[in-house]
Amino acid sequence: MDEKQHKLSRRRLIAGGATAGVALPLVHQFVPHNGAHRALEGAEAATDHSEHGAAQALHGGGNAGPTFRMGATVDHGANGFNPTEILRDFDWGKTTRLASGRVLREWTLVAGDREIEVAPGVKYPAWTYNGRVPGPTLRCREGELLRIRFVNASEHPHTIHFHGLHPAEMDGVPGMGAGLVPSGGETTYSFDAEPFGVHLYHCHAGPLAEHIARGLYGAFIVDPKQGRADADEQVMVMNGFNTNFDAEGNQVYAVNTVAFHYVNEPIAVERATPVRIYLVNVLEYDPINSFHIHANFFDYYPTGTRLEPSEFTDTVVQGQAQRGILELEFPYDGDYMFHAHKTEFAELGWMGLFRVGGDNLQDASKKAAYCDVAELEERPA
Amino acid sequence: MEAATRSSRGPEGTTVPGWVLGVVPLALIAAAIAVFALLDGPGLGERNGVPVEELAVERTVLRPGEIELTVRNTGPDPVSIAQVAVADAYVNFRAEPEGEIGRLDDQVISLDYDWQEGSPYAIFMLTSTGATIDHEIDAAAETPEADAGFYGLMTLLGTYVGLIPVALGMLFMPFLRRIDERWVRLIMAFTVGLLAFLALDGYLEGLEIGGESASAFGGVELLFLGAALAYLALTGLSRWMDDRVESAKQTGAAGYRLSLMIATGIGLHNLGEGLAIGSAYAVGALALGAFLVIGFAIHNTTEGLAIVAPLAKSERPSIGRIALLGVIAGAPAILGAWIGASVYTGELAVFLIGIGIGAIVQVIVQLLPSIRDSEGRALHPLSITGIVAGAVLLYLTGLLITV
User: Fold this and answer.
1) Is residue B388 domain-resident?
2) Which is nearest to A139 in space by CA: A377, A369, A374, A381?
3) How far is B50 from chain A (nearest CA, A)?
4) Out of B91, B94, B128, whose CB is closest to A66?
5) Which domains does chain A have, with CATH numbers?
6) Among A167, A253, B107, B160, which lies 20 to 30 A Cα-Cα from B233?
7) What ipTM score was computed for the predicted complex, to two decimals?
């Protein structure tokens, strides 16, 4: 943070002090506060992450909201994934047109053991699918034939259990079909893509809670046959990390693994443009999780299995494995918080920002809602 | 010297100075340890098991909008505090010095948090490995600044609870000098009962504090170390005074000497009492008020009685010397309050409480001869009555004070 910005934030502090009475609606504005003031000065001296400057001014700690130690960020390079990229990363797999005219869609998922940084300076010995937590967001269309080759490169036995409609031997649980896939082993799960909606997959080896909590999960999206309307589509997997392994709640909460990530790097969206969020709760060791958006409302489609929304709301609660689709537009420019309205989780990391319009808008790549069949590679079955 | 002479002539008849035989193994031990450390324990391989991360919070200071913790690494491995949460919310913080905390090193972390007066707070420190170290603040209150006014208040408090009550108790001396020797024995027994209860009280408190402050410097063992140290030091002092007054061993001198020993023991006990008051005040856990001061006054008045009891049948010492006894017994409460309110740590408290216990036990041993009856029994109906009455009285007055 350069000297000019430093002065600016100091002046904002003073201005905040003079107008404390009218500053209330400015939720993110600094509330005048001795401790926060002192700590902020210290943090400014300690940090030079100018790219995070704006977010820091919004979440200064103290009365301005929870924060990790200022200036500290997670090393996404070492982690091998970045939640900003995971947000809009849909893995459509590899497709083939079968003789019947049906589409065969294939993926390979590799389980591994990997230490990841879940909060600045905090390493967690995770188990991963394809080296990331959450695993890849698998996306397909209703009625396709799916094949998922599962390679276990982890030191522990694992499976992949999909939420969906399929025969018992494809359920990815111990003792049925391929059962537990030992370290070094592999298997292929194959089933039809149904029903449409937003689902999930996760390891079902025992102890189940640990195999999920360690990071073996991901979103699994089945588009309806006719597809969905164009939108800025995003996937948010609500998760957490019980870093001290006491199996009593979690120490760190997040969407897409890195706590407070979307505060440091707000999600850029365009004003008056449809946004569709595929929201999945995989949080282990806590009974519920929730999603709340500020200054906005969304249409909520529980599990995404119906095309009519069940509710127009700004808050939704999900138990583990519950999921749904949120559709909304942002009518105004500005920064808007979203977080668990289980506020304890929010203050322990599950909090982010949407940045609508303005100069800071990143190139929010709008993706097609689904892969057009015309683009599929033709291959004889 | 005989031993030295013998060892200087080895079995083979070689002549080596005796001190060399002592220094050589010492040097070899030092060299072996140095080599072992330099080679990082040859043959032992990698460290077995996961790192053990332990931090002890030695001091908590609360200022408006800020919680400051002084933590010490009490475990075998270095610890890095990555994040800190107060009441399940992550907070910004500064660390001084920055970075990893080595074994036995300390770090001061200042948390940016708008705490509320009187609320309890659960804090957890998340280390780089994801381990959590918990710390609880029972009831938040601003830590007083250690300025002149603060030390003045601690002095006043120490005077109220230490000096004045002891002095008041000593006013029983003229009464004691009038009564029959049998009743003096009863009062001495009563004193033994008082002191025994004080020792028990200190022991239990020491166990409690020692148990809480798991620390590299030890917990409960410091209690016993302090007690043994005080007991032996006072016994040594007593023997030294015995030797000095051997020639002029009159009842008067012996009585005053005993009073002095009791005053010293009680003084060391009151040091611990002052410590408890001062530290409780510093963390805002002390309800300062007339009730507390009255409670302490009644409680400590009995201590004054104990000090003058040995003077009942001895030569009457000068007023100055009596006043000195009062100061020795009462003033340490002031010192204790200063220490407790400024540099309090659990280990220090346990050690000082241990010293108080050792001192009291030593005084009890000194007092025992004076409660023996004509047949030489320490426990006889009269003394038992006194001991029980003393213990019960202290128990009852103790109910009045809760720090």
Assistant:
1) yes
2) A369
3) 13
4) B91
5) 3-64 (no CATH), 86-223 (2.60.40.420), 232-356 (2.60.40.420)
6) B160
7) 0.78
